[in-house]
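Q: Is it fine to ask for two folds in a single conversation?
A: Yes, each is treated on its own. Send the first.
Q: Here.
A: Result:
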Amino acid sequence: MKNNSPLIILSRTAPTFLERLFELEVPEIFDGLITIKKIVREPGERAKVAVESYDDRIDPVGACVGMKGSRIHGIVRELKNENIDVINYTTNSTLFIQRALSPAKITSIKLDDEKHRAEVYLKPDQISLAIGKGGHNIRLAGKLTGYEIDVFRDVEEEIEDVELDEFAEDIEEWIIDELKRIGCDTAKAVLELPNEDLVKRTELEEETINEVKKILKAEFE
């Protein structure tokens, strides 16, 4: 109250403001069919919204986004193009962290529930996606899930390449020579080329190439 009159203070940066926008745009939230479990924001940059449906027939994320993004676009415009990630809430901490770090694809997660820490392992090209521009994505994922998230490069992705000569016992020498003739000196060099290219560029038949690739793949499994 101010001078016996009610004074209302509205903050566009408050999570509650975003919650009300969702209620206006998404009838299922207004009607209580979908619940917003938690909202975290870095106003003007990015927000993450965890939603849950009490009706198995309703996809909470799909309902919030709308056909071709029609519902979410209205909210994004109102917030001057703040990026909004809508996430399916779950009590499974591992899955929730995985969803919260979207759009990055996680290889594996190790949780320490006592300290509320999570070690997240990703392929090298996914690390920058997990962290996000200015670190917004990983900070918000931590706030949303309640875990302090540490990102690590997946060591299994760093298996060193192997020279073709190392497979002399399993692959005939003339086949190795034929592959080396076109510049494929290592196992990964062969595996990365489509069968069609290998058939065109070498004297090998597709059946032989399939057998060679099977042997090479076994080295990395």
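Q: Second one now.
A: Result:
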Amino acid sequence: MILKINTLSTKLGLRDHGRRMSLTAFEFAQVEDGYICELARGYVVVSEVAKFPHMRTVGYVRSHMEHFRIENPKRIYEICGTMECKLLIPEWDSERHPDIAVYLTPPPNRKGHTMWRTWFPDLVVEMISPGSVERDYSQKREEYWSLGVKEYWIVDTNLQQILGLRRNKNACIQKTLGLQDICQSKLLPGFTLACQAIFAAAGEQEER
């Protein structure tokens, strides 16, 4: 049974994890402070705000992308984080909030919530965290592909590898990067980022 909720007065929280909900209801629902909510194929997924390693990894990658954006102002239109954008995927009854979403072009329209129904990122980056392995490696891979996302990076600091997926006509080209490799993208000519440095950012917790 799909949960019906008064989106104007009810806030989603940890108690709602695993509940069934329609994308229409979820799109306008509010979330309690300290939590992040996604809709995963019709079910609410509630997560706490990211812990230190996840936060540092996301921040490190995003800061380098922002630097590239400043140096190449015509390459990137916007870079968004988890709380700054959402990907509505009606085909899968999902709403996702990527760790990093890179938009190369402006939105077709800028009218409030409807903007997210037509504006999709060209490049998405997700950082694996405990409990997100299946979502990031499998579910989001299928969903982002259906939206037309051109590149999807999955950063797995536990395995110390980055899985890069790139759209090529109707096929998906897959490449796994390790410690000694460099992150690059055909969407961002000239952008380079050492994988080892990304994993080192996550490992700072052990040094403190």
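Q: Anything structural to flag on that second result?
A: Two points. Residues 1-49 form one domain. The longest strand covers residues 161-168.
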